[in-house]
Design a protein that fits this description.
353 residues; alpha/beta; 13 helices
Length: 353
């Protein structure tokens, strides 16, 4: 009968590397590795690899009174925007020795509250949430109660909770300036939900950008969606063109709404960009494969996740409760969905069809 292998301990690694166990602990922790001589740290890591050493998170947690797990709340795991953000979060937390517990809330407030309570019961050390709505008081209450929390791609209006977002107003300004420079003056906005910071700020950014380029925003040139989905984009853009069929360009509050606009144009017998130009927001993976490829405001998705994890680790490290918001810069990626306005407005061309 074979012997049951015993688990390798820090002391075993220390014996092989000929260092103190405390040195092994520091060398194997990415957060403290800089305190160890580089040659020594490399020797420790070689010894750990040769012995097949695996850290014991339970023992580590008993020593530090931490679980080394972080709850990550995502509103819609099927949205292509979020996997790169998650990758940035996971990679940074993994480097620091933390494990992510990811839950999908389906944009449901009660489900979100239930997951928060379940994760707290599992003694996670903190939360990263991409689900904040402007009316979401219980997240603010959670942070006020001392629970480390960082918002990602969302923020609260009073900035009471630390957040990492893109500069939404600047992004919409880039979109509006682009189509205005192409010669469009009748520009519509398929706006996002106004109870979510991204939807609200992008709408405000649209109004500001239109004023800045010297164009009026008529009431019929803006329609609001109930969610950031393709179906809502199709519904809202249909309403928009029904109310203002002279529109020659649409700035959508995100790429999924923009894809819905494509569907509406096809249903109306119109072509993009020949009849109506379309701009999205987020530059999701694969939008360059649409026909035509979508012009979109690029968000540094992975960097957003990395910065959110950095902010939470800072909060866990020094106990700081100072609210702050990190705004990352967007860029515009111009593709085939935007062109100069047609000689005839879309309404005339649609009647001709």
């Amino acid at each position: 009968m074979g012997r049951v292998p015993t688990s390798v301990t820090i002391r075993d690694v220390a014996r092989v590397a000929k260092v103190h166990p405390g040195t092994v602990s520091r060398a194997l922790n990415a957060e403290t590795r800089g305190l160890v001589n580089q040659e020594t740290a490399e020797r420790v890591m070689r010894a750990a690899q040769a012995l097949g050493y695996r850290p014991n998170p339970i023992a580590r947690g008993l020593k530090t009174n931490r679980s080394y797990t972080i709850g990550v709340l995502i509103p819609d795991i099927t949205n292509p925007l979020f996997p790169p953000i998650l990758r940035g979060i996971e990679d940074r937390l993994d480097d620091a020795g933390y494990t992510s517990l990811i839950v999908n809330t389906d944009n449901d407030a009660e489900r979100e509250r239930s997951y928060l309570e379940a994760l707290r019961a599992r003694q996670v050390d903190g939360f990263i949430s991409a689900t904040a709505r402007l009316d979401q008081e219980f997240l603010a209450d959670l942070a006020a109660g001392g629970v480390p929390l960082v918002l990602v791609n969302r923020s609260l209006e009073d900035r009471s909770v630390p957040a990492v977002t893109v500069d939404d107003r600047q992004g919409i300004r880039l979109a509006v300036e682009h189509v205005a420079q192409l010669g469009h003056s009748r520009i519509g906005h398929v706006a996002g939900p106004q109870n979510i910071s991204t939807g609200h700020r992008r709408y405000l950014g649209f109004l500001e950008a239109m004023r800045a380029v010297g164009l009026d925003t008529l009431g019929e040139h803006v329609r609001f969606s109930a969610s950031f989905t393709e179906a809502e984009g199709a519904r809202v853009s249909s309403e928009l063109l029904g109310a203002a069929d002279d529109i020659t360009a649409i700035v959508a509050a995100n790429d999924r709404l923009a894809i819905g606009c494509y569907d509406t144009l096809e249903a109306c017998g119109l072509r993009c960009p020949d009849d109506v130009s379309i701009v999205g927001f987020n530059d999701m993976p694969f939008v360059e494969r649409l026909r035509p490829p979508l012009t979109s405001v690029r968000v540094p998705q992975r960097e957003i996740g990395t910065e959110a994890a950095n902010l939470l680790l800072q909060r866990l490290g020094d106990g700081s409760q100072i609210p702050r918001e990190i705004l990352l810069e967007p860029t515009l990626v111009v593709r085939g969905s935007t062109a100069p306005p047609p000689a005839k407005p879309a309404s005339a061309r649609r009647r001709a069809n």
